[in-house]
From TrEMBL:
It is a peripheral membrane protein. Keywords: Cell membrane, Cell projection, Coiled coil, Cytoplasm, Membrane, Nucleus, Phosphoprotein, Ubl conjugation. CDD domains: FERM_B-lobe, FERM_C_ERM. Residues 311-464, 517-544 form a coiled coil. It is found in: Cell membrane; Cell projection; Cytoplasm; Nucleus. SUPFAM superfamilies: Moesin tail domain (SSF48678), PH domain-like (SSF50729), Second domain of FERM (SSF47031), Ubiquitin-like (SSF54236). The keyword Repeat does not apply. This is Merlin.
Amino acid sequence: MSIRGLKKKQPKTFKVKIITVDAEMEFSCEMKWKGKDLFDLVCRALGLRETWFFGLQYTIKGMCTWLKMDKKVLDQEIPKEDPISFHFLAKFYPEKVEEELLQEITQHLFFLQVKKQILDEEIYCSPEATVLLASYAVQAKYGDYDPNFHEPGFLAHDELLPKRVLRQYQLTAEMWEEKITAWYAEHRGIARDEAEMNYLKIAQDLEMYGVNYFPIAQNKNHTDLLLGVDAKGIHIYSINNRFSPNKSFEWSAIRNISYSEKELTIKPLDKKAEVFKFFSSQLKVNKLILQLCIGNHDLFMRRRKVDSIEIQQMKAQAREEKARKKMENQRLAREKQLREEAERAKEELERRLFQLEDEARQANEALLRSQEAAELLAEKAQIAEEEAKLLAQNAAEAEQERQRLEITALKTKEEKRLMEQKMREAELIAVKLVKESDRRAKEAEHLKQDLHEAREAERKAKQKLLDITRLNYPHIVNYPQYLPTDTRDANFDKGSIKLDLKDIDLKRLSFEIERERLDYLEKSRKFEDRLKELKSEIHALKLEEKQSGLYS
């Protein structure tokens, strides 16, 4: 067969891009493939066996719809693009995630989709629950919390909380991270699949979990209600309240669901009960509602029947896989524990070794310091001995000086006493001299008075003698010096005797006065010299007393 013939036989293909929550894949599809062929290819690529939960979603004219499995892909109203994009998403939700989700890949895809719906605020969650769910998401992504590895700021690039919660509370990113980390640290030892399952078990209890909402009206003019379809049945909500339904129809209580153009009819199983009719905005919405109702009803009835062999095998494999993983996790946990214990023991040994090395280093340093201290002490002892000798010598000298000072002090005291006595004597002498001076002054005054009286008496005597001489010897009055001696002696015998006596007394008195004056001057000079000597001795004694006080 020629190469040209082979080329002609190759089927025509078109490209599709499959977008999962966390990845993208591209496939080449044959032109004749139906939706199920493409869906099975994607499931095989993902290793997914629980295919009944999932579907391929696309958007056309602003409306999300699901690829039909029994029609050709290209025959359906899909976007005209190359490659054609489809989102691989969960179309139906389990009632109890822990019992129905058997494969780890199924669980992981549900975890990623529900987490995205919570973050995009398609599912309402309270702030407290969002923090707890975020901690399980962090455990699934990063494993066990390690404060040495997971330093502050390690969640800065992760989207973990809805923007509504971030706006509701005035908390910084660091505060939110601290709150999430506090829960995250308590999940130690939980494996990734277990953390994801815990996340889903919390999320399945939220009111908006697994519900597809469609706007409807009780008449053709108004759209004032919401119709919700989930794993348990159909629910009617008011337009402003998606949490608490006004009315619910469980799948077990519904006999039939049908639509005609924009009219949707729900017939209860009880034939006597009222038939509910609602109106949607367009026909495609009714088709989508019916498609979701049929799928959820089939799964609802399937859960209440005996599991097929395939499901039983899958559950057995899941149990075995869980048991194996549990044992593996226990083994890993044990190994991790042993490794941590070994690391702790190693760290303890290293710490102990470092401590011993540090102690040895300190001991060596202490030994060196003790040796240096011993040498220093020996040197100090020698210096102290020399100082002791010097101090002993100084003490002896001080003792001698003390004794000398005591003797000097005694001498000084004695000399002081003598000087004080001499001063007292000098004072007495001075007093005596003053008194004697006063007495002598008085005597001198008396003597002067006597001398004055004597001179006055002499003058009067001379005058009287002259008067007598004129009367008796007028011819010799003017010549008294020529009188004969004998004559004078004879005529003035009595008067001369008296005159001579007077002259002798005056001379004697003058001589005695002069002599007393000279004695007084001599004694005064001697007394002044003695006073000067006493002052100099007192000054010398004061200096010695000051010096002896300093020595003491």
